[in-house]
């Protein structure tokens, strides 16, 4: 039955207030009780689906950020921000190079090092290792070995004492403990009339470190720099100088500045982003792929709003026709349903952002609770060498997800709103 025009007369008074009547009508449609309960159900599902997708996207991105931070922390706890070497991997006059680098205001500390390969042997067990000769006091300023020591101290490395500090996995492979003596076999041999004999030297294990990064824990051995120079016959030469900068993310710029400063001196300057590019590139690719995959979930949830709005438009055809006869333009009809869809999508978006922030910020509580309830292990510190699932919430990720969800929601409202603007009053009211 055709509704009286007086039912819509209050809408005329809305034009006298600052807020447009399209917004008021769109908000009223959001709050109105549906004659068709299925439409309300679809609206609820669309809102919850959008919220779930946004929350999942924020949580996963935060976990990927946490992994990236953990990987960066563990690598840079052993590696250096910037490394200066010679073209032949040998550096003469390292003190002058270190002093020149320290003149840069962004460089905090410098330490020389000797890097060579060797074989370590203990009780018929042999393992390859990367031997790094260091000055303990200077090394503590460019790396965080003191925080990773599981036995002994880095300062136990004394010149002429031939002590050695092993990564924990390397120590396990050799089955050695502090106090045991291991034989270091250098690749440079001794030339004798009879044959070329390998150079052997016994070292006493004075410490064990655990960086949490398998590459270093399983292959790195530290000795005093003077012992390394004597063993590898380097005299006063070193392999290079390691630097720590104020802001590790600024290391590429500082490295370029140092390369320009050392122009013409046959020196190579590299930063941590180049030395470990594969690790960080892999994490970045995984993060981007997870963003794309989970964005599809958000898109599906957002476009559920399309079906909901189309049903609303069909349900409200008589109302649309009456408003058109009262002088409402097609553009006004579009605004009504854009407002309705935007409010529903915006509510779901805000709910998802709040849920995602809450979940990502409390993974250390949520994951153990799920494991306890389900009786399964979701995270093993023995596999990942990280005690708990890492998470780091970045404001840029939250803003990106929010903007993307908002744009998808607005796009989802365009077609149903256009359908509403195309409703012909005569056709819509024919059977009322």
Plain-language structure description:
The chain is of the alpha+beta class. The protein folds into two domains: 5-71 and 280-429, no CATH class; 80-269, no CATH class. 55% of the residues lie in helices and 19% in strands. The protein contains 18 helices and ten strands. A six-stranded mixed β-barrel has the order 2-3-8-5-7-6, surrounded by four helices. A hairpin with a 4-residue loop joins strand 6 (181-191) and strand 7 (196-209). Helix 3 packs antiparallel against helix 12 (277-315) and helix 3 (37-76) packs antiparallel against helix 17 (395-421). The protein starts with 9 loop residues before the first helix and ends with a helix. The relative contact order is 0.18.
Task: Tell me the span between the first and last alpha carbons.
Answer: 5 Å
Class from secondary-structure proportions: alpha+beta
Main beta-sheet annotation:
6 strands, mixed, barrel
Unreliable runs: 1-19
Give the overall pLDDT as a whole number. 81
* DSSP helix fraction: 40-55%
**Number of structurally distinct domains:** 2
Count of extended strands: 10
- Strand order of the main beta sheet, please? 2-3-8-5-7-6
**Total helical elements:** 18
Residue share in β-strands: 15-25%
Overall form: elongated
List the helices and strands in order: HHHEHEEHHEEHEEHEHEHEHHHHHHHH
Radius of gyration: 34 Å
Describe the secondary structure blueprint for this structure:
Elements: H1 10-14, H2 21-31, H3 37-76, E1 82-86, H4 94-102, E2 107-122, E3 125-134, H5 136-142, H6 145-148, E4 149-151, E5 163-167, H7 168-174, E6 181-191, E7 196-209, H8 214-217, E8 220-224, H9 225-231, E9 240-245, H10 251-261, E10 267-271, H11 272-275, H12 277-315, H13 317-325, H14 330-360, H15 363-374, H16 381-384, H17 395-421, H18 425-429
Helix pairs in contact: 2-14, 3-12, 3-14, 3-17, 12-14, 12-17, 14-17
């Amino acid at each position: 039955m055709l509704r009286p025009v007086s039912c819509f007369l209050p809408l005329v008074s809305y034009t006298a207030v600052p807020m447009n009547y399209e917004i008021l009508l769109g908000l009223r449609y959001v709050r109105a009780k549906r004659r068709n309960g299925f439409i309300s159900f679809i609206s609820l599902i669309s809102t919850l689906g959008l919220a779930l997708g946004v929350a999942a996207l924020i949580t996963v991105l935060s976990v990927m950020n946490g992994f990236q931070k953990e990987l960066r922390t563990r690598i840079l706890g052993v590696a250096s921000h910037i490394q200066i070497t010679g073209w032949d991997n040998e550096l003469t006059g390292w003190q002058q190079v270190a002093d020149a680098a320290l003149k840069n205001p962004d460089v905090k500390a410098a330490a020389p090092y000797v890097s060579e390969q060797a074989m370590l042997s203990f009780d018929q067990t042999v393992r390859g290792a990367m031997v790094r000769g260091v000055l303990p006091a200077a090394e503590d300023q460019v790396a965080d070995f003191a925080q990773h020591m599981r036995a002994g101290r880095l300062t136990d490395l004394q010149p002429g004492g031939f002590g050695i500090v092993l990564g924990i996995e390397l120590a396990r492979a050799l089955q050695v403990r502090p106090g045991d003596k291991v034989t270091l076999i250098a690749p440079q041999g001794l030339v004798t009339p009879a044959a070329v004999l390998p150079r052997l030297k016994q070292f006493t294990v004075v410490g064990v470190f655990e960086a949490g990064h398998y590459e270093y824990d399983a292959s790195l051995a530290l000795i005093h720099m003077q012992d390394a120079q004597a063993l590898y016959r380097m005299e006063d030469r070193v392999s290079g100088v390691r630097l720590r900068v104020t802001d590790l993310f600024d290391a590429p710029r500082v490295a370029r500045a140092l390369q320009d400063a050392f122009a013409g001196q046959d020196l190579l300057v590299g930063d941590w982003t180049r030395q470990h590019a594969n690790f960080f590139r892999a994490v970045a690719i995984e993060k981007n792929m997870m963003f794309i995959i989970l964005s599809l979930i958000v898109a599906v949830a957002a476009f559920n709003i399309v079906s909901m709005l189309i049903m609303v438009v069909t349900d409200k055809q008589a109302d649309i026709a009456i408003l058109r006869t009262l002088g409402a333009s097609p553009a006004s009809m579009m605004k009504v349903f854009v407002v309705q869809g935007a409010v529903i999508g915006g509510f779901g978006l805000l709910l998802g952002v709040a849920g995602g922030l809450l979940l990502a910020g409390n993974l250390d509580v949520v994951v153990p609770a799920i494991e306890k309830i389900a009786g399964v292990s979701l995270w093993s510190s023995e596999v990942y060498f990280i005690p708990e699932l890492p998470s780091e919430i970045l404001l840029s990720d939250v803003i990106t997800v929010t903007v993307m969800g908002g744009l998808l929601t607005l796009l989802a409202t365009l077609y149903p709103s256009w359908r509403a603007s195309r409703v012909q009053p005569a056709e819509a009211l024919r059977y009322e």
